[in-house]
Every structure is written in structure tokens, then in C-alpha cells.
TrEMBL record:
<feature type="binding site">
    <location>
        <begin position="294"/>
        <end position="297"/>
    </location>
    <ligand>
        <name>GTP 2</name>
    </ligand>
</feature>
<keyword id="KW-0342">GTP-binding</keyword>
<dbReference type="Pfam" id="PF14714">
    <property type="entry name" value="KH_dom-like"/>
</dbReference>
<feature type="domain" description="EngA-type G">
    <location>
        <begin position="3"/>
        <end position="167"/>
    </location>
</feature>
<keyword id="KW-0547">Nucleotide-binding</keyword>
<dbReference type="InterPro" id="IPR015946">
    <property type="entry name" value="KH_dom-like_a/b"/>
</dbReference>
<dbReference type="InterPro" id="IPR006073">
    <property type="entry name" value="GTP-bd"/>
</dbReference>
<comment type="function">
    <text>GTPase that plays an essential role in the late steps of ribosome biogenesis.</text>
</comment>
<keyword id="KW-0690">Ribosome biogenesis</keyword>
<feature type="domain" description="EngA-type G">
    <location>
        <begin position="176"/>
        <end position="351"/>
    </location>
</feature>
<dbReference type="InterPro" id="IPR027417">
    <property type="entry name" value="P-loop_NTPase"/>
</dbReference>
<feature type="binding site">
    <location>
        <begin position="182"/>
        <end position="189"/>
    </location>
    <ligand>
        <name>GTP 2</name>
    </ligand>
</feature>
<dbReference type="InterPro" id="IPR005225">
    <property type="entry name" value="Small_GTP-bd"/>
</dbReference>
<feature type="binding site">
    <location>
        <begin position="229"/>
        <end position="233"/>
    </location>
    <ligand>
        <name>GTP 2</name>
    </ligand>
</feature>
<dbReference type="InterPro" id="IPR031166">
    <property type="entry name" value="G_ENGA"/>
</dbReference>
<feature type="binding site">
    <location>
        <begin position="119"/>
        <end position="122"/>
    </location>
    <ligand>
        <name>GTP 1</name>
    </ligand>
</feature>
<comment type="subunit">
    <text>Associates with the 50S ribosomal subunit.</text>
</comment>
Length: 436
């Protein structure tokens, strides 16, 4: 698991400025809209080859004076529970405030590394004035300017130093990375809102000019998921024709980073060419795929509706015959839970490893039952198979004629593996290697 770093502090001390500074992007669009709720932001950041997850705990809602302390407590609680390292941020321009002192007192109980950071130290003069913050009884103070990029590298270096050593055990397998792709208006952002379990803000169309990507970590039934490029999803539906091209590029990038891709279709509109293109890429990239037919509430249904729709999807996406289909409504919430159980099933297969002995038993049965057709007039001989990778399950098969295995025979083997090992919902790769 990547370490989690949380930034806490009063409103306006510069938390989101630091967040975006570390993200290496312009400030996220959502932050530029005045008076709207800002989400707690998560992003994966890599500095000096060390990846970590950064949380900006700021701005749950516009804060009034009497709500301030309550909010600070909530923030600090989140940080204490979720973070491995805490950045407690204060503001040189406003000096040490009672709220800062209160939070510092709360944090004193935490047995985690805490970085006391004074921001907006844009020059020497403020540097000297920031000594008052030592009255908190702390040993080390970092003075930075998030806006002018002062002191950031020093802070980073010390921060990376305190990260717990990456332990060998199951790093990535604890998080399922989910990408949500599909044409504009199929309901991606509505689905994302549902999956995250609360209404999230939809970005204002006029703001859609910067393209920062923000990932969101969430848990469901005690399992961890990372929803890739949440900000992008929320923006995409609102793009103009011109930007639509970029949104395809964004989809491709998200697909590359995902374990399981939700390909969202609009029940009313059926399968379009652009859907086929996007799904084709999911297949080629070898990612787990779940078709999510959204807006199921809009159809007049009878006994055959579902069957007809399944046929439509199967005809439209021949290569993805293995991908499960779920019929949902982001609007009513119908079967949204089914999405997560399906994602779990696909992920389970995606990272599944078969023992070499089981594999070779099934493999030799398959090749004995049904011989490969002659290639160049010669008999095709198979020696053995071995699983070389997961994500997706990939198998190397040793044969005397690696370049001449007929496509239909390859498909036959893939189907045998699917049946035998329960790989019924993921892509499978076969790699043929030569050996005389
Ligand atoms: P947050 O509410 O803690 O997330 O604070 P923001 O990041 O939104 O910043 C609040 C204000 O402080 C914004 O107007 C920023 O431009 C400004 N700010 C942030 N960092 C600095 C800095 O290093 N120096 C100065 N002078 N202003 C800053
Ligand atoms: P995106 O562009 O793919 O992110 O799509 P949005 O989530 O913005 O949704 C596009 C439109 O479809 C909005 O007007 C939504 O209210 C509507 N919508 C989304 N999901 C559903 C659904 O399940 N049923 C119905 N009837 N409308 C939906």
C-alpha cells in the first residue's frame, strides 16, 4: 500500500495550493468555482520514484465562524485515522491563531509523523516573523510558500524519508483500480456519484479548460478501490465537440491505468460505433471489462427486453463475449450494488494464478481431445504451458510451431482455460514460444 499523506489546516492557509503544487498541475478546476462544496481530494503522487497518496482534507463546505472548530476536528480525525503522515499547515500572514493552537493540541495525541508547515512565507521578512509558531512547543518548523514554490523540495525530501519502508507484501493487490469510460452523456458522472455513495459536484461547463486528473480512493465492504480520473469523468459529459477528441484520449489513459473498466452504455441509445471503439481498446489493453447498461429506468420493459439487450451487446462487442453485463440506473440507484460485486468477481479472476500442474493437466487434455490442425503440412506439437502473469492471466505455451497456431485453435484453448479455471469474465493471453 502506498503511504497516505494528509494536509490539515484552517481554511485559506493554502492547503489546496500545496496539493496542486505537489500534483504538479494547475489548481483543480473544482477549486476555482466560488461558493461550491469542495470534495475531499485524493491523488496519487510520485516524487523521487516514491509514490504516495495525498489527501487535501480542506473545504468540506463553506465554513462559518462557529463551524470552524467543528470542521477542524472532523478534518483532524480523518487525517489521524487515514493518514500515515500529517502535514499541519498554518499561515504566516495571519500568524498563529487560536484554531491553530486547538488543532495542534489534538494532533499531539497522534502517534504519526507530523510536519508543522507555515505557508505564505514568500520572503525573508516573513521567514523571521514565523518564529512565533515555535510557541506550539514543536521542534521542527517548515516554512514554505506553496504559491511561489519555496521550501517545497526540502519539505518533500524530509517527508519521503519518514515513509514506512515499502513492505514486501501484496502492494497493489489491495486496491482495485476502476476506470469508468463511455461516450458523453451516458451517465458516467451520475454513476460515479452513486458509487461513491454521495452526491458529488458536477463541474461547471465553462470551467472545462484545465485537465487535471484526480483519483478517488474509496472503500466498499472493507475493500479498497481507486476510481481513476474522477475529475475528468465529471467534466467529460460537458465537453464541446472539439474537446470530445481529448476525452477519448483521456479514456485511453484511464484504461491503461485500470484493472477493471466499466464501459458505460446508454440503454436508450444502444450500441454506437464510438462505444465499440472504446470497448475494443479495453480488450486490446487486456483489462477486465464490465458492461454497464445505464438508464435502464427509461425503457418500457417486457419479458424479452433483457434478452434482446444482451444480444445487442454481444453482437456489438464480439471480442468481449466474456465481459459481464449489468443493467442499472444511476438515477434510481437500481442494481448499483451489483456493479461492485461484479467488479470484485472480475478482479478475482484478473489476479488469479493457476498451479502449473493443474494447468498442464487441463492443457494436455485439451490438446489430446482436439488436435491442432496441421501447419505447413507438419503436425503441431505442444510441450507444456505455464502462467507467466496475472492482470490479465497470461500463459506461455511451448510448441514446435509458434507462428502457425491457427486463430480458431487459440480460441479453443482460451475457452478450455476459461471453463476449467473459472476465468469466465476476463481476457486471457496466450503466448506461443518455439521449442523443437
Ligand atoms: P485552503 O483553503 O487551505 O485550501 O487554501 P487555498 O489553497 O485555497 O489558498 C487560500 C489563498 O491563499 C489563495 O488565495 C491562495 O492563492 C493563497 N496562497 C496559497 N499559498 C500561498 C503562498 O505561498 N503565498 C501567498 N502569498 N499566498 C498563498
Ligand atoms: P456523463 O456525461 O457520461 O458523465 O453523463 P452524466 O452523468 O452527466 O449524465 C448525462 C445525463 O443523463 C444527465 O442529464 C443525467 O441526469 C442523465 N442520467 C444519468 N443516468 C441516468 C439514468 O440512470 N436514468 C436516467 N433517466 N437518466 C440518467
Amino acid at each position: 500500500m502506498k503511504p497516505i499523506v494528509a494536509i490539515v489546516g484552517r481554511p485559506n492557509v493554502g492547503k489546496s495550493t500545496l496539493f496542486n503544487r505537489l500534483l504538479g498541475h494547475r489548481r483543480a478546476i473544482v477549486d476555482d468555482l466560488p461558493g461550491v462544496t469542495r470534495d475531499r481530494n485524493y491523488a496519487t503522487i510520485t516524487r523521487f520514484d516514491k509514490p504516495f497518496i495525498l489527501i487535501d482534507t480542506g473545504g468540506f463546505e463553506p465554513v462559518t465562524e462557529d463551524r470552524l472548530l467543528q470542521q477542524m476536528r472532523e478534518q483532524s480525525r480523518l487525517a489521524m485515522e487515514e493518514a500515515d503522515v500529517i502535514i499541519f499547515m498554518m499561515d504566516a500572514r495571519s500568524g498563529l491563531t487560536p484554531a491553530d493552537i486547538e488543532v495542534a493540541t489534538m494532533l499531539r495525541r497522534v502517534k504519526k509523523p507530523i510536519f508543522y508547515v507555515v505557508n505564505k512565507v514568500d520572503g525573508e521578512k516573513l521567514e523571521n516573523e514565523s518564529a512565533e509558531f515555535y510557541s506550539l512547543g514543536i521542534e521542527r518548523l517548515h516554512t514554505i510558500s506553496a504559491e511561489h514554490n519555496r521550501g517545497i523540495i526540502d519539505l518533500m525530501e524530509e517527508l519521503l524519508d519518514v515513509f514506512p519502508e515499502a513492505d514486501a507484501g501484496i502492494p497493489d493487490d489491495e486496491i482495485t483500480r476502476i476506470a469508468v469510460v463511455g461516450r458523453p452523456n451516458v451517465g458516467k458522472s451520475s454513476l460515479v456519484n452513486r458509487l461513491l455513495g454521495f452526491e458529488r459536484m458536477v463541474a461547471n461547463p465553462t470551467a472545462g479548460t484545465t485537465r487535471d486528473s484526480v483519483d478517488t480512493l474509496f472503500t466498499c465492504n472493507k475493500k479498497n478501490y481507486l476510481l481513476i480520473d474522477t475529475a475528468g469523468i465529471r467534466r467529460k459529459g460537458k465537453t464541446t465537440e472539439k474537446l470530445e477528441k481529448y476525452s477519448v484520449v483521456d479514456s485511453l489513459r484511464s484504461i491503461e491505468r485500470a484493472d477493471v473498466v466499466l464501459v458505460v452504455l446508454d440503454a436508450e441509445e444502444g450500441v454506437t460505433e464510438q462505444d465499440e471503439r472504446i470497448a475494443g481498446y479495453v480488450h486490446e489493453a487486456g483489462r477486465g471489462c464490465v458492461f454497464v447498461v445505464n438508464k435502464w429506468d427509461t425503457l418500457e420493459k417486457d419479458n424479452s427486453t433483457l434478452g434482446v439487450y444482451v444480444d445487442k451487446v454481444r453482437t456489438g462487442f464480439k471480442y468481449l463475449a466474456y465481459a459481464p453485463i449489468v443493467f442499472v440506473s444511476a438515477k434510481t440507484g437500481q442494481r448499483i450494488g451489483k456493479i461492485m460485486t461484479t467488479v470484485d468477481e472480475v478482479m478475482g479472476q484478473y489476479i488469479h494464478r493457476v498451479t502449473t500442474s493443474d494447468l498442464n493437466r487441463v492443457f494436455s487434455e485439451a490438446t489430446d481431445t482436439h488436435h491442432a490442425p496441421l501447419a505447413h503440412g507438419r503436425r503441431v506439437k505442444f510441450y507444456f504451458a505455464t502462467q507467466v502473469a496475472t492482470r490479465p492471466p497470461s500463459f506461455v505455451i511451448f510448441t514446435n510451431q509458434p507462428d502457425s497456431i491457427h486463430f480458431s485453435y487459440e480460441r479453443y484453448l482460451v475457452n478450455r482455460f476459461r471453463e476449467a479455471f473459472g476465468f469466465d469474465g476476463v481476457p486471457i493471453r496466450l503466448i506461443f514460444r518455439g521449442r523443437e
